[in-house]
Amino acid sequence: MSGKITEKIPYGFVKHEKYDVVVMDSEKMESVKLMFSLCLDGMSLGQIKNVIESQGIEYPAKYKKDKIVGWSLAEIRKILSDPIYGDERYSVIAKEELEIAKRMLTLNTRVIGKRMEVSALVGIAVCKECGSFLVEKSVSTRGRTYLYYICGKNKKGKGCSMHKIAVQELDEKVLEEMRKEIGDREVFRCKGLTREIAIGYLKYVSIDSAGNIKVIWNT
Ligand SMILES: [Zn+2]
Question: How far is ligand 1, taken at its centre, from the CA of residue 153, in Å?
Fold first, then answer.
């Protein structure tokens, strides 16, 4: 996109006062960044809608002039799927983040309870057998809740096998691999694998049913 106006302007951009180009509306772009960060944390579209509405984030009003209708899930999805926000010229979000956001939309994740975000490898860890992304499953026994990654296809009841692995176990394995391969301080200093670090460094992590991993790095 050259910046010239050819079609409907994406949320967060406005038409320049004088020239036939679009420029960023920094306040709205902050809202876009928030939406992406909530999506990357694993919130569902409905949860994202609740947050942005509770913060009074301005609705793209010009599309529905007369009545206040609030955000629709389709509009939020449209923003989160628009490659323009990963365009280096605008540096709204990193390309890797855009890629994971796209995956999160297909995974229908939802942050449950008081947790602030999904486990580090959701949208990154892939079942080696069927190629589906692993998703979270929580299991409660004797008042304690344990978190696992399992094959997304299996969770939907569509076959494959469970590939169940404890979140902590897989996260530690991956972090260990990162420490071998990547010399960055951030990777050495963190106490555990965070979502931010995972998204920053890892393109995919493939896991077989025996728990062996293969990492594909972001380049
Ligand atoms: Zn599978």
Answer: 6
